[in-house]
Structure formats: C-alpha cells, structure tokens
Amino acid sequence: MVAQNPLFRGGWTMRKFNATVINDIWPETAFFTLIATMVAIITEKKIHNLAVNNGLLTVLGTVLGLVISFRTSSAYERYQEGRKMWTNISIASRNIAQIIWIHVPVDRTDKDKNKMTTVQSIIEKKSMINLVQGFSVAVKHFLRGEAGVYYEDLYPLICLLPRYANAVGPKTDADMLPLWAASEDDQHPLHTAKPPPPSRSNTSDPLRTAVPSVIDDDHKSEKSWFRSMTGRRQPSRANSMDPEKALATIQSHRPLKPAQNPPPVTIYDYFPFLRIFSIFTKCCRRERKNVRRDALGRKIKPSFTESNVPLEITIYLNSYLAYLLRNGWLQPALATGLMNNVASLQDTLSNLDRIGNTPLPFAYQAHLRMSLWLYLLLLPFQVVSALHYLTIPGTAFASFLLLGFLEIGQEIENPFNYDENDLDLDNFCLAIQRELHEVTAHTMPDPATFVFTSWNQPFAPADRRNAEELTANAAEEYKHTDHVDAEPGMATIRRTLLKSWRDVDRITREQ
Fold first, then answer.
1. What are the C-alpha distances in Å from 200 to residues 195, 223, 251?
2. Region (Disordered): which ranges (predicted)?
3. Has this prediction a pTM greater than 0.85?
4. Helix (H) / strand (E) containing 318
5. Strand partners, 151
6. Number of other residues whose CB lies within 10 A of the CB of residue 227
C-alpha cells in the first residue's frame, strides 16, 4: 500500500511503473490502437469503406462502463475491508497487551503456594505480549502464502513455544506439535539442532534442547544461505525498514528466511507479449526456487498455506488465560475482556482468509474481458466515419481508460501481496510492535505520585492553583480565593467547576 506516492518516493527507476497498471495494459492498448490505425487508413485512403452503423455504440458502451464500474467498486470494497481487518488486529493487540501488562499481578503465589519473583512475572507477561506481536507477523506471512515459522521477523517471537507433546522421555517426529511439524522439512530436521549453552534457568528442562541461542555469526550465515538458495541478493534495506533490527538475533537449527521476500521483477513484467517465448525457453533455463510461474511465464500469486500459525498462537493465548483463571490471578470481568479480544483476533483472521480466498468467479472475469475486447475491437469501425483520423487517438484513449479500470480491479481484489498498490502489511506489523512496546514501557505508578504535584492544576481555568497548593493544609476544606465569604467544602468545589465551565464556554466561542 502506498502511504506515499510511489512514483515520487526514492529514485526514478522502471520499477516505479509497477505502481500503475501501464505495464500491464500497454500491449493491449497498442494492439487496439494498431487496429484503429489500419481501419482509419483503409477508410480514409478510399481503399475500402470499413465504417459500420454505430447504433449500438452508446448502449453497449454504457452497459459495459457500468459493469466495469461495479467490478472496480467490488474490488475496492475488498481492499477497504482488508484495511479495516488490520485495524481490528491493532486494536485487539493493544487491548490484550494492556490487560496482561497492567491487570495481571506481579507479586503472586499460585495455588500450590509457589511464589513467583518479580523478574519471573515480568518475563512471563512480556513473553505473552511478544506472542501477541507474533500473531500479526504470522498473519502477514499467512496472507502472503509464506508457509512455516522460519522467518527473521517471526521466529524470534515464537521460538520459545514447546515443540513436542511429551515433556519427558525421548522425542520423535510423531510427538512434534502441529505448529512445528507443518514447518519442518527433510533438509533441516529438528533433531539435528545444536542445544544452547546451559544456563541456570533451563538446564533441567528437556523441552529446551531445541531452543536456539543468540549468536550473531549464525545470523549472518543465514543471509549467505538465502543468496545461495535463491540465486540473488537479499533485498537491501538501506533506505527502507528493517523489521528484524528491533528483534532478538536467534540461532535456529535451519536458516531463517527474510521478513520480506517479494518475487523478482523480470522482463516479462514490462513486456507481457514476450511471455509466449517463455514456453520455448522454459526447458533451457533454471527456475529460481522461490518464484513460481505458469506456462506463459507469468508470476503465480501464492496460495494460502495449510500451516495456520496465527491460529496456533491464539490457542496459546487462550491457554495462558486459562492458566491465569486457575490460579485466580485475573478478575472475571477482565478475563472476559481478554477472551473477547483473543476471539476478535480469530474472527479477523477468518475474515482476512475469506477476502484472500474468495476471488471474483472466473466466468464473470472472462466474460467481462471478452466483452471489453469485442467492444474495443469494433469501436474503430463505428466511429471512423465521424472522427476520421481522430479514430486512432480516440481508440487508444478508450482502450487505455477501460482496460486500466479493469486491471485495477483485478490487482486490488487481493491486497495482501507485494504489489506496490497492496496493503503495507510490514508497516502495519511494525506499528503494532511499537504500540506493544509502548504498553510494556508503562511503569504502573501509584496515582498519588503524579496527581498531587505542582504540575497539576485540576480546577483550571477557574482556580489556577496546583494540586500541591490545594492540599498543602489537609486540615482545611477547599475554599476558592475569589469567594471570601463562601462556605468551604464541596459546595465551593461545585461552584468552582461551574465557573470553569462558563469560562471555557466563553473562551472557546470567542472568534
């Protein structure tokens, strides 16, 4: 998505035209313009009169315009709905983080009389908030058809989750939980992972034998692995965001893929008519492993994955809620709010899945495009008698206009990929990350430490004394200095508040 105009952002390159539909429609526009040129020359040179009656031109053009307008509007509704769903994720994530961080107590003892230290409580709450952040990142990869959890912006947030169903005894692939089983492959099996260095906190925990440790050198080697596997350099982020900079550097038993992995742009994206030659050269070239193309060489948009990582994360959040309720650490009203917000995340995930997995029926798209082609093909024959040589630019403009709107509708109906006009999912995830870190930066101070200070003038503008002056003599009731003969107490406070209302009403209405 384009928070800024992509044509005027950064340097001028050919890739800027990916933000428009010019590179998609110019071959068709050129074809219909060529037809109009031949019709105009043959007719005007008196070789043969190709003009036909234009009685159906207005009727068919109006109907076709309405259908194309409906097509574009329905696609834009899906685009807007996708944006609303991401707003819901942001709101629910903030709510969950605030409930966990503020309302779950720090000093607590479970039902077995085991007391948790302050550090343990803070680590537990911060880790669960990191899972909330991981949900939005997992949704981003899920919508882009990127399977698994081994990404530089996702893995550090959820690598703490257990990998096996059995906490004790030998662990095999049959015991691996669905979150990890769906992400594994034969090339990098989990049982070959190097265990982390022992520490006082995890020496006796068998589940931690596969948990990674923090090693910068391995993180660098993962970048080299990406280049060797894909045949290209990882996208440079010197002038763009780097989602991994604010995350932990984690050593994994397999290389981590980059947070952003858009398919490379080829010559076929600028000259679509050359795709016909890709049929003959397909057997002679080596396909890149991260790019899927059809028989004509066009990029295939990724399908949704079977590994539903966001759903697995919400299951752990619900398990944490059950854990808090079992130990009596959360009030029922707050537990209801936490449960409703987790349910909101699940509901939003289903709606996003619906938007991405429900394209316009193929029959509708095919019939609309064929009707438009027939209309543009016959257009020069109907207008040549009235426009003469102006038939050529007129047909070019009409084809550019109608084909452009049709292509725009097709491009934005699934707004979750890497196109310039798609929603900026990476920035949405970074915004959620900033908000969650702002929540955990809150120190939960006692209101008395900041309310009764010289920085607070609670009764302004009627009474501009600060709270420290108003409470300097605790034995005296409140009395406004302008009302010497007034009785101190609540009646004077109400009179002061009424005066504040009159002053504010008068000041704010003055022009």
1. 15, 32, 19
2. 187-244
3. no
4. helix 309-326
5. 257
6. 11
